[in-house]
Amino acid sequence: MTDDPSAPANLHSPQRRLIELRIEHADLDHLVDRIDPLAPPDELTLRRLKKRRLLLRDQIARLERSLEPPEPA
């Protein structure tokens, strides 16, 4: 194994997945925030976006907990 972040073994690492989830969550945040307040919103689409954002937040929290070293007793 090498410490090279571009090595194939690191393509599916938990750290990389965490970064991908954070990027997707930030993109959804931006999208939800940019919905035009003057236009009538598509409630179904907005609800789906917010649900996906919440799911991502939960996945991020779960992955962060799994990556943290256990606390000493």
Give the topology, please:
Blueprint: H1 14-33, H2 43-67
Helix pairs in contact: 1-2
Feature tags:
73 residues, mainly alpha, 0% strand
3D architecture notes:
This protein is mostly helical and 73 residues long. The protein has one domain. The protein is built from 2 helices and no strands. The chain has helices at residues 14-33, 43-67. Helix 1 (14-33) packs antiparallel against helix 2 (43-67). The radius of gyration is 17 Å and the shape is elongated. The two termini are 32 Å apart.
Percent of residues in beta strands: under 5%
User: Helix amount, in percent?
Assistant: 55-70%
Structural class: mainly alpha
Overall shape: elongated
- Rg: 17 Å
Mean pLDDT reading:
85
Protein name: DUF465 domain-containing protein
Pfam family, one: DUF465
InterPro entries: DUF465, DUF465_sf
Give a brief outline of the structure.
The protein is mainly alpha-helical.
